[in-house]
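Researcher: We're teaching a course module on how sequence relates to structure. For the next exercise, students receive a sequence and then see the predicted structure as C-alpha cells, so they can try to spot secondary structure elements on their own. Here is the exercise chain.
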Amino acid sequence: MQFSKHFPATRWLLRRLVSRRFWYIVAICAAPIVLGMSAIQVDQMLFRHKAERLVSNIRELQFGKTTLAEARQSLHQWPEGAWHGDCDRACIYEIGLESFSLRHGDFFLGHPVLQRLRLRLGGHPARVLAVVRFAKGVLQSGSVGVHLWVTSYLNPDGDSEGYTLIGDASFMSRLELERSPALLVREQPHATYWVHQPGGCEGCMMIGVTFLSGASHSDIERLMLFDFSCLTLRLHPCRVPADIMPAAWQQFLDDEAQRPQGP
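Model: And here is the predicted structure for the students to work with:
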C-alpha cells in the first residue's frame, strides 16, 4: 500500500475496486448491453429456425407432381404466406421471412448509433423468400432465395458499407429453361441441374442452383442445402457463397475445373 500513497489516483481506484457500490454501478451499466446482445441472439436463432423449416418445407414439394390441395395442406403453417392469382388456372404462393434487423429497417436507418450497436452485437440483416407456381392444379416451378446483408465496415456516420450475399435454388421445366437464353449460354455438365454464379451482380456475391424436371431427390437434398449457422455467429458471419450454400459452391468449383479451357 506504500505505492498507493504516492499515487492518489491509484489509491482511489483500489478503493473503488473493493466497493460494492462500484460493482453495482458496473452491473447497471452492463445490463442493457448484455440484455441487448441476448435479445439479438435469441431473435437470430428464432429466425434461423424458421428459415431452416421453410427451406425444408419447400424441398419436400415435388415439382410436376404435388397438387394444389397437397401444397395448401403443407404450406398452411405459414401465416406470412400469400396466394396471388386464380388457382383454378394459375397462381403463385409467396412466403417472405425477415430478421428483426430488416423488419425494423426504417427505425435503424433513422438511428445510426443503434444501427452501429446492433451490427456490432451480431444483428445480421437477412431475408428468405420462397415462391412456388401452380398451373392447372399442379406445382410447376418455384424458387427459394436467401439474401444476407454483409457489413464490411461502418463509416463515421454510422452507415454500414458492404454487399449482399445471395444463395438461390430454383425449379423449372425444360420449356422454361429454353425460354431463358441466359441459362443456355454454356454447355451444362449435368442433365437435371445446373450450378451457376450469375454475372452482372453489382454490390453482391451470388451462388445459385437450377433444378430441372427429373432431378433426383439426392441431388436436391445435397445442393439445396442452405447453411444458416452463420446467422447466429457474431464474430464469424457469412461472408462468401461457400458459407451459405457449401455443397452447391463445391459443385460449382468441381464443374468449373472440368470445363475445357480456351486456347
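Model: If you want an answer key for the exercise: The mean pLDDT is 78. The CA atoms of residues 7 and 13 lie 10 Å apart.
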